[in-house]
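Extended Data, panel c. Modelled sequence:
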Amino acid sequence: MYALLLSVLKIAITNGFLGLGTLINVTLEISLYLTVRLK
């Protein structure tokens, strides 16, 4: 899980704004996933 987040962070830094958008999308997906699991 943490390795995945670290790799996403590396991609975000490498790709700049495009990567940042990807990071935001992944963060939202993880948030939704956790929200569904906690319900």
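The chain has one domain: 2-38. This feature is highlighted in the accompanying rendering.
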